[in-house]
Design brief:
Helix content: 55-70%
Number of strands: 0
Distance between the termini: 39 Å
Structural class: mainly alpha
């Protein structure tokens, strides 16, 4: 648990990072347009698209 706490303390404070609960992620996914979810599913796990244009 200590390692996870250390990661959270480091990563969750970074700009552009939001650490949320699984419930919050599930609620967010439920609120998305199916077309948005289809685009997100097409990303490779480590792929970082230009978010300003990706979901338009």
């Amino acid at each position: 648990m200590k390692a996870m706490e250390d990661v959270m303390k480091d990563v969750c404070r970074r700009d552009g990072v939001r650490c949320v609960s699984f419930r919050q992620v599930a609620d967010w996914l439920d609120a998305q347009d199916p077309k948005v979810l289809a685009k997100l599913r097409g990303l490779d796990p480590a792929q970082a698209p230009d978010w300003k244009t990706f979901l338009k």
